[in-house]
Amino acid sequence: MTTRVALEEGLRALEDGVVELASMVDKAIERSVEALKRLDQEEAKKIIHDDLLTNKKRFEIEEAAIELIATQQPMARDLRRIIAILNIIVDLERMADHAEGIAKIVLMHQDKPLLKPLIDIPRMADKARDMLRQSIDAFIRRDAEAAYKIAAEDDEVDALYDQVYRELLTYMLQDPRTIDRATWLLWVAHNLERIADRVTNICERVIYDVTGRMEEINVSKY
Amino acid sequence: MVEAVASPKAVGRPAWVRVEGLSAWYGRRQAIRNINLEVAPGKITAVIGPSGCGKSTLVRCINRLHEVVPGARVEGRVLLNGEDIYGPGVDPVLVRRRVGMVFQRPNPFPTMSVFENVAIGPRLNGLAKGAELEELVVRSLKLAALWDEVKDKLHVPGTSLSGGQQQRLCIARALAVNPEVLLLDEPTTALDPISTLKIEDLLRQLKAEYTIVIVTHNMQQAARVSDFTAFMLAGEDQVGELVEFGPTRQLFTNPKDPRTEAYITGRFG
Amino acid sequence: MDGYGYQATAHYRRRKIVGWIFRGLTVLSAGLSVGVLFAVLGFVFLQGVSGLDLALLTQTPKPPGETGGGLANAIVGTLMLVGLACVFSLPVGIGAGIYLAEYGRSGALAQLIRFMADVLTGVPSVVVGLFAYTVLVLPLGRFSARAGGFALGVIMFPTVVRATEEMLRLVPDSVREAGLALGVTRWRVTLRVVVPAALNGIVTGILLAVARAAGETAPLLFTAFGNPFWNLDPTQPTAALPLQIFVYAISPYDDWHRQAWAGALVLVSLVLLASLAARLVGSRGILGR
């Protein structure tokens, strides 16, 4: 059927916006962890600045969605799609904030070195980014099955976080002078854990879009 | 489907209506087939569907107006508070006193004043006279949210009012005979948007006392105003059937039948 | 005004001229019709106004040969005959009209009734008079006003039926549906809602039928027959304006000729009044609504 061309075009534009925003978030996570590895202050400042662009993008998408609702009176699956989009962009924008948080920690280090070589933290970042990519993919394809599976992978991220926590705790107990730097790294891990958790929110929205039901999946340990 | 409704009372408000296996014909041509529907008391039920799906026919079977057309016939049952209005020995005239109807084009009686339009129903049915009748007219006009606009001109011709006012006059006229159910067949199709919204507000106020069924081809109206929605569709044999029925909020956010979704999202071919 | 120079073309000019000619022709036709009407009315008026005096309107005819006297009894007689005609034709005529419009519709019986009514319209009035003569005069052995009234009623009947039916048909079905939807019985809807809605038109039709009947002469020749004296008894023969005019006009007496013209003026005035009343009712309705 070629009816509702304006609505279809509007929905496609919104979806493209979500993909773009997700890609910006993915980049931000990558850049922030790289900046942390090298303690690159300049890069960290750029990342913090670029977060404004992410916010702007999110609001653009939101405005476009509201306009589409007002002018096209979407019902049923169209309505659910738009509502899902509105919620997903909130999660994406928060994820970008968490990436910005990691960049801020780079700045906090100033001229101090990293407490230890980063092993688990990059693993967490890779996992979270992978989950993000998959969840957006599931959203575009309207694949609820995949959404359930992706959400389950949050357990891996939580497990890595446990590891990082215990390791950093050991450092802090052994030498109280490392507490500040350990805390900073803990905070980075926390941000990455939150990012993965946000991805499960996105998966919930994908399921809602497809089935019309809001389900709580995989309540985070933290 | 709606679960068990409140226990039926013989003549009581708000009334509940159940349609069982209803089929209707105009002469040899079948218009609707095997409709099963439960109209909840004190709620507004909308009937939607594309043109020719039989929604008007269905509704006109509920007040036995369908059979006025020569050659029209009906099979199945329609239960009003538990009694079959098509039962043997049931007088259609009495059914129509209990089930009122408002039509698509406002049709106040042409030679009568505003007052007479509302009074004629109860007068001809012997429901009230004199001062009682006057009170009844005032009450009906107030119920229809028209009193303030016509209280100083009760004796002008009914047809001299604006379109929206005329339709509210028709609603007052229908309410004057104290029905239990109110049927509205596309009542705002011929009206401007403001009058439309006024009448929708009015229906919301009325629904507690009267069970309301509204036929509409405007989906947004059905979504705005109704508690339950029935979606009808005519198949290739041009006979209307009930495709889906459920709470409005569910039907418009997550319909079960793909045909319902196609219609509601406007992707009907 | 137009950007293509169309208005300057010969085609346009010719169109305009044709338009004007056509318009001129129609105005001419209208003028001729009205002119003829005024000519007839004017002629009757001129001839009859001189004979119009109080005596004409208040006295009964004098014996042949004598001058003076009037047409008072004929005027009253015409009114009585029309009244009787209404009594005979209105109840049955309106009833039949209601049947045709509301119940019979397109059924076989209804089609038959319509056909018979149309045929009846075409029956010459003298034949109707003959029928009334055979049925109401011969068996009773006497001319009577009621026989005349009956004949006029038969003449009025088809017009009343058709007017009633047509006017009722003009009432939209939505009105009937609205009435039925109130739980009002069918006959009550017809009588209290539909007929009142059509009433203006029905009354107009009746008045036009009356106007026609008032002027009929032939049937009265052998039913009402005429009467030189006052008569209000329907079982007796009665005078009527058209009858009197006829008798006076073919007589050799000048005075009677004068009275005939005056009588014609009175009759035309009555018919004109009835037609005007019909128009008023049609546009403003009874009770001015």
Detail the poorly predicted runs of chain B.
1-10
Q: Name the helicity range of chain B.
A: 25-40%
Query: What portion of the residues of chain B fall into strands of 2 or more residues?
Result: 15-25%
Which percent bin holds the helix content of chain A? over 70%
Query: What Rg of chain A do the Cα atoms give?
Result: 19 Å
Shape verdict of chain B = globular
N-to-C SSE string of chain A, H for helix and E for strand: HHHHHHH
CATH topology of chain B: Rossmann fold
Largest sheet composition of chain B? 6 strands, mixed
Mean pLDDT of chain A: 93
* CATH architecture label of chain B: 3-Layer(aba) Sandwich
Tally the helices of chain A.
7
Say how many strands of chain A there are: 0
Strand content of chain A: under 5%
- Give start-end ranges of low-pLDDT stretches of chain A: none
CATH architecture of chain A: Up-down Bundle
Query: Class of chain A, according to the CATH hierarchy?
Result: Mainly Alpha
Distance, first to last CA of chain A = 47 Å
Main structural class of chain A: mainly alpha
Overall geometric form of chain A: elongated
Q: Can you walk me through this structure?
A:
The complex is a heterotrimer of chains A (222), B (269) and C (289). Chain A has a single domain, classed as Up-down Bundle (Methane Monooxygenase Hydroxylase, Chain G, domain 1), CATH 1.20.58. Helix content of chain A is 83%, strand content 0%. Chain A has helices at residues 5-38, 41-72, 76-109, 120-141, 144-152, 154-174, 179-211. Chain A is elongated and about 70 Å long. The model of chain A has no long low-confidence stretch (mean pLDDT 93). Chain B has one domain (17-264): Rossmann fold. Chain B has 10 helices and 10 strands. In chain B, helix 3 (114-124) packs across helix 4 (130-143) and helix 3 (114-124) runs parallel beside helix 6. Residues 1-10 of chain B have low confidence and may be disordered. With 289 residues, chain C is an all-alpha fold. Chain C has 2 domains: 12-49; 54-288, MetI-like (MetI-like fold). Chain C is 74% helix and 0% strand. Chain C is flat. At the B-C interface, helix 2, helix 3 and helix 6 of B face helix 7 and helix 8 of C.
Task: Describe what is shown at a glance.
With 222 residues, chain A is an all-alpha fold. Chain A has helices spanning 5-38, 41-72, 76-109, 120-141, 144-152, 154-174, 179-211.
